[in-house]
Amino acid sequence: MPLEALIFDVDGTLAETEETHRRALNDAFAAFDLPWSWDQPTYRRLLRIMGGKERLRHFIEHDRPERADDALARLAELHAAKNRRYAELVHEGRVTLRPGVARLIAEARAKGVTLAIATTTSQANVEALLVKTLGAEALGWFSAIAAGDVAPAKKPAPDIFLLALRQLGLPASVCVALEDTVYGLRAAKAAGLATLVTPSFYTDDQDFSAADAVFETLGEPGAPARHLAGAGVGETLVTVDLLRTLVA
To answer: How far is the C-alpha of 220 from the C-alpha of 97, rounded, in Å?
Structure first.
C-alpha cells in the first residue's frame, strides 16, 4: 500500500511540551491561590490520565488536596487559565520541536504526503505550538487537526485517530501514526494504524513492544536517531521512505 498521510500526536511527539504544561499548571494554581505544586514524580503519575482537564479532575477527586471542592467547582475556569498560561510560555519560546520533526514535515510536504494531527490537547495549544515553532502558515499544512474534546473518548480509545481518518477521508492502511506514549500507541493500533514511537522525557519507561518501530528521536543529519526496536534497524533518520515500509 502507498503511504498517503502522517498523523502526529503533539505533546511529547512534536515537542517536549510536558514540562511547560507542568509549569503552566503550577502558575495557574498560584493564580487561583491554590496551595498546590506538581513536582515531576507527581506529574509523571498523573500523565497516566489522558487529557488535561481529566487529569486535573482526577487529581482533585482522588488526591483530595486542600481546597479541592472549591477547585472542582471552578475546574473549567482553572483549566482555561492553565491553557492561556501555556500559550504565553510557548510564545516566549519555552518550547522547541524535537529533533527531526521539522525535517520530516518538510520532506513529507515535498513528497506529497498529507499531514494530520490527532491529540488530546486543546486546539488552542496545538495552534500556539505550530505557529511559534513553524510559523503561522503551518496551520494550513495539516489537512486534519483532531484535537481536544471533539472525540467521545480520550486515548487509549481510538476515537481521536478515527476522527482524523474521517477528516482525511483515508483508510488506516495508508497512514502512519507518530506517538510518544503507550496510551497513544494503543489508540493508534486500535484504529488500525501502523505506528512509530519516539519516547519522550515522561514516557521513556513505558512498554512500546506493540509499535511497528521505535526510535529515540526522528533524527537530524548531524544528530542521528538511535533505533530502539522494530523496523528500521541500521537507519539513522526517520524518513518518508522508512515510514513507507511500515504500510507496505
So the answer is: 12
Q: What is the pLDDT of residues 86-125, one digit of tens each?
A: 999 999 999 999 999 999 999 999 999 999 999 999 999 9
State residue 246's pLDDT score. 98
Contact (Cβ atoms closer than 8 angstroms) between residue 126 and residue 142: no
Catalytic annotation present for 33: no
Q: What are the cell numbers at 162?
A: 478515527
Cell of 201: 522525557
pLDDT of residue 1 exceeding 90 = no
What long-range pairs does 205-210 form, CB within 8 A, spacing at least 24?
206/181, 206/182, 207/182, 208/182, 210/185, 210/186
At residue 186, the pLDDT reads: 98
Average pLDDT, rounded, for the chain: 96
- Which of 9, 159, 180, 212 is catalytic? The answer is 9
Which of these is catalytic: 11, 159, 180, 212? 11
CA atoms within 13 A of residue 72's CA, in its CB half-sphere: 13
> pLDDT by residue (tens digit) across 29-61?
999 999 999 999 999 999 999 989 999 999 999
Query: Rounded to whole angstroms, what are the CA distances from 197 to 13, 78, 179?
Result: 8, 32, 5
| 63 among known catalytic residues | no
Contact status, residue 197 vs residue 214, Cβ threshold 8 Å: yes
Q: Is 192 left (phi over 0), alpha (psi -120 to 50) or beta?
A: left
